[in-house]
Amino acid sequence: MVKFGIIGAGKIAHQFTKALLGINEYLYAVASRDLGRAMEFAQIYDIEKYYGSYEELLKDPEVQCVYIATPMSEHYKNMLDCLYAGKHVICEKTFTLNYKEAKIVCNLAKEKGLFLMEAMWTRFLPTIQEVQKVINEGMIGDIVQIESFINLRLDLPLESRIFSKALGGGALLDVGVYPINIANLFLGIPDSFDTEVKFAKTGVDSEEKITYFYPHSHATLYASVINNDKKDTYIYGTKGYVHIPGFWSTETAIVFNNHHKIIKEIEHKHIVNGMEYEIFEAVKCIKKKLIESPIMPHKTTLDIMRQMDEIRKSWDLVYPTEL
Ligand SMILES: NC(=O)c1ccc[n+]([C@@H]2O[C@H](COP(=O)([O-])OP(=O)(O)OC[C@H]3O[C@@H](n4cnc5c(N)ncnc54)[C@H](OP(=O)(O)O)[C@@H]3O)[C@@H](O)[C@H]2O)c1
Question: How many domains is the chain partitioned into structurally?
Fold first, then answer.
């Protein structure tokens, strides 16, 4: 069994823990910057070891794989520390603040022969995998357009991580990375792009529309942390289309022909909360001694980081600590 450790005892760490324990994987340790929070977290889930600093967890030789659940601004340093300590790594999205940081981390993982994966859980969902299969088999013909919406009105104060420039906040890195992954998964790297953006008072983006242009198709991607509009992905082909409701965590997708008649319904209920599929993948790869996942390889993460750099460059949005 792979012995997991978690660093950062915030919101998503709880979800990951539930998924990990729900599939009977081994959560051995948790670390927080605050010993009391680590202890509380460990007590809730009956975790053997808890630490009041990330460094202490990384010194524990029993920890084999670390799940990083900290804000974006911390990922680069956290990943380097984990890899130098000889640990395999699963790091939450968005992987780093920019391409340069991501490249250094991926190179180090290769050099050390350690497994490293961005926790882009959407890619591992069985429903998304089946949509890929259906499209590859030609059920909707050639893709001509994608529309992907992630509009989450989070109702968070401007002091929250999501709006903090120092912590790598903003709609693009927090949620825009999901529709960008959808475009990348089904259409690859765009030839060019166009954007419209709205900024929060703190200087980070609060919502955007991004259009990706490809030789024979385009993708329109919407991301927001201030409105509660659509949350769907539509993939339109020459012979039909696929509708994926709540696409980033989806259990279902519906395939239609061009006459709007349902031709296939896809459903895969989560075993726990959907995060279990990325854990299955990581465990499988670590057991096979792979350093990257074939489903979410380093190249995919790097391609996406580069696209996000270009988008931010067009907005003059620079994070204070990015390399
Ligand atoms: N997969 C998903 O569906 C999903 C959903 C939400 C978020 N995420 C990702 O998960 C990561 C964490 O998001 P979250 O919503 O869980 O955030 P959060 O609730 O704010 O938790 C982040 C944790 O990081 C730690 N941390 C380390 N350095 C920090 C700093 N300088 N400032 C603040 N916190 C710091 C803190 O834990 P300690 O004090 O305990 O060390 C904090 O509780 C982000 O990368 C986010 O994109 C993924």
Answer: 2
